[in-house]
Amino acid sequence: MTDRYDALIIGAGHNGLVCAAYLAKGGQKVLVLERSEQVGGAAITREFAPGFKVSACAHILHMLQPKIVRELKLKTHGLNLNGPPIETISLAADGNKLTICRYNIEGAEVSDTDKVAYTRFIKRMERHARALAPQLLKTPLRLANAGFGNVIKLAGMGWDIRFGLGKKRMRDFLRIIGMNIHDLLDEVFESEALKGALALDAVLGTAMEPRMPGTVVTYLYRLAGGLKSIPTLPMGGMGSVTVALADAATSFGAEIRTAALVETVLLEGGCAVGVVFAGGEEVRAPTIISNADPKTTFLKLVGARNLEAGLAHRISNLRTSGRAAKLHMALNSLPDFTGLEQDALGNRLVIAPSRKYLEHAFNHSKYGEFSAAPAMEITIPSLADPSLAPAGKHVLSAIVQYAPYDLKGGWDAQKDTFVERVVDVISAYAPDFRDKITTVECLTPVDIEREFGMTGGHWHHGELAIDQMFMMRPTYGTAQYRTPIDGLYLCGAGAHPGGFVMGAAGHNAAQAIIAGDK
Amino acid sequence: MRAQYDKEHFRKHSLPTPFYPRMAELSQDSSWHCWKGYLSADYFENVELEYFAIRNACSVMDLSPMSKYRIRGQDAEAFFDRMVTRDMSKLKPGRVGYSVWCNDQGKVVDDGTIFRFGEHDYRLCAYERQYEWLMISSAGFDVDITDETEGVAALSVQGPTSFAVLSKMGLSGIETLKPFGIVHFPYHGGKLMVSRTGFTGDLGYELWVGGSKALTLWDELFEAGKHYGIRAIGTHALDIARIEAGFIQAGDDFTPANHTIRKDHDRSPFELGLGWLVHLDKPNFTGRRALIREKEKGSRYRLVKLDIDGNKPAHASYIFHGRKKVAGVVTSAVWSPTCKQNIAFASLEVAIDDPLNDLWAEIYYQRELQWNRVWQRCRVHDEPFWSPPRRRATPPGLF
Hints:
By secondary structure, chain A is an alpha/beta fold. Chain A is built from 15 helices and 18 strands. Chain B folds into 3 domains: 9-66 and 150-233, Probable tRNA modification gtpase trme, domain 1 (Gyrase A, domain 2), CATH 3.30.1360.120; 68-147, Alpha-Beta Plaits (2-Layer Sandwich), CATH 3.30.70; 300-386, Elongation Factor Tu (Ef-tu), domain 3 (Beta Barrel), CATH 2.40.30.110.
């Protein structure tokens, strides 16, 4: 087959589509290959019970980069970000809920001191996050063999931290950056409920608990990604984002082929020259871009034996074991959460009553067990978007931690017990909850791996911790989207700046590829 | 394959090898050092006598501490081909190949010999321990890796009369064994493997046997060799011979890349004069990309053999260009008793203009605690200092 395409993108997840759209916009002939029937990767909306639809993985849109929305004109391609803005409500069994807005908090149990401290804390953290934020939409710098461009980048990063923050704040930034969120929160707040809820933000989607060093970084990272966005439940679920992206990409001329499972990246003389499908068919192009996670890309599609030993070793050592499960429940009517009005149910509800609660939940996962009392992030997206459930009925979507990928004894035998556990926990906050459930779908990390092809079922394609961030993501030697295999690039969550529905990795990869072409 | 040894072994710093009982009897001064965890003799009686056994008669050295790994499996050839710089498809069963292997940065991890026993059966012998690197390199390959260092005892039998000694021992058919060939013999209910390999640049063999047969082998060998000038040698004598033969030694002439901490302290194969071992036309091997880059951009160092005036070995001397500018440093140096030359290896910086002319060694030496310094002119020597025709003759002569 002749080179009909300039670039092939493996995986039509949101980053693959962002990358495709930018490359196509830049005049390249792009073909996106998706193994499923539907585009979107894990960012899809799908039916899990007749008439009930839900976002399959991430359910809150809080980090999609406005630059990407603007440049790819996603709103004209059908992206609806007009859902009501959501706040975080930390549930309490006694009904004394805590409402956490961007700059202020409300709650019967919270002291005035904490209320003032919260506003100051968030402003302080956001200033720090602003020093990190410019890095998200840039190719990470190279430390080894750094050329002039990298020295400029390093200087720029130093400038952002030193002069963006100023002397006093830089000192604070450098002091807290290696800390754990548990200790930082102790310095600032009195209320344990508040500390628990904030600590959840630092560990959600990770294999960490609040006392682990590096949890301040994850907290700041989350803030940095969301500085310019208002958290929302996208109309039509997360799938609406990728449908709009696919529409944008095709409008720029990209082609998308679904039900196209790529089995191998074709190598000739050590260079990537095409892909081979499960059926044996080949497609060739000078640039191959993988939106698959780094382990899948390097160890399966390329094969460890086609890499040099050091890189293969570093890739196989990446921490990619997911510890978050996703639960979807079809409800015949809204449950009654103690102390919560019906109209508050459309918010982000979290179960993280204290930091100890999170630690206990995490402890089980260290020993290959799921949490006895898991922490959760819950949404009921059908409130804002009734099209997701039959009239009068509702959908509940929950991210549940911790549910380790490598569960002792395996998930098959224990999934039902786990679901029971989750229902029990929610029932403590909504006593009539059990009676409302008609169907349950539980996606453990093993299911997520099987269904979406993410190694370890980790939806960041690898732990987003400081040793696997920036120029270390996924690992040095392949952190600038270009891999050591000529012609092969990464554009997925396994590359900087990681997961979330941010689109930044796809954007940065496309910029790196375009810049490299010049 | 684990040999039986004293369970209290951990109380001692170094383990005895299977030949230790015989070697301990011969060792006049109990002069030993630790070679990767095993006791290895510096010398037994006299370094000069031992050296001349290598060049004029038959020397026997205990090779048992050499790190030995068995690599078996469907992918063994592909595994080696990806790990080492040489094209391993050219190494046929029954043959031995020398190679280096690199890290991703194209810097030498170690050098060693690869024995191909069968289609899917190999042994790797290296000076350094390599188990971790082998395991790292094995991801994605169907191979089984076993450390045989402990179970396999080995003797290096080198020198002009080595063939006569082995013939006398009754190893019939050994006359047809070519350099880098392997032959197996039944041996007292076990097996004896003989390879025509060595580290002396002379006629010589290496004998490999299970640990339980080690002392029998030693005794039979010395019995057969008693009229052929057979002599046990230590590493000091070998060191002279290997420099004459132009063989580099890990830890002396380069620091294995996995041990270097500081930038630029490692060496690529090109920088060690081993470019002939690098087959860049292979589609993939560890270090390939970096070595291609090095080939394009140039190397930082070059290793040269030097013939130095005078008779004072240039141990650790600086090499100067025009007696002014430092050009590099001597990595190994010795007075060659056979060649009657003052020889050395030196690692020179490539950036020096015209580095191969007007080279001088600044040699320090001591007399009755008094340090003296001499300047000696150095000439680059392209060929090994010692490489007699008998090294390759098949059948070898009965000297």
